[in-house]
Amino acid sequence: MHSFNIIIYKGVTFSQNLSVTGLGGAAINLSGFVLSGFLKFKYSDTGRLTSLNPSGVQPYSDGIVNISVPATGTTLLPVGYGFYDIQLYGTGVSVSGTVMRGIAGKASIIPEATY
Fold first, then answer.
1. Domains in the chain, start-ordered, CATH in brackets?
2. pTM for the whole thing?
3. Which of 10, 31, 95, 102 is most buried, by CB atoms within 10 Å?
């Protein structure tokens, strides 16, 4: 699993490409995986601040995941810090039943001055 901290500005569309790698740094082929990812105040929280809407970027063999939140969603986020992770759920023939935590990190939510 790779760790990467992100910055989300309130009121602005958030979009970030992240690289998902395995042991040794090789890209994980995202073919056959369904992605899920959320932002929370604490990992232990049962409630979520928002979905990060993760999706694989083609070619899937490069292991690039895009996470995004529309401006209408970032406006609702509280200013402060949170945590996120992206999980990969194997549904394809060669990865069926596999669950991996692909990437995780801290999220800084920055207020806006212009609105």
1. 2-110 (2.60.40.10)
2. 0.89
3. 102
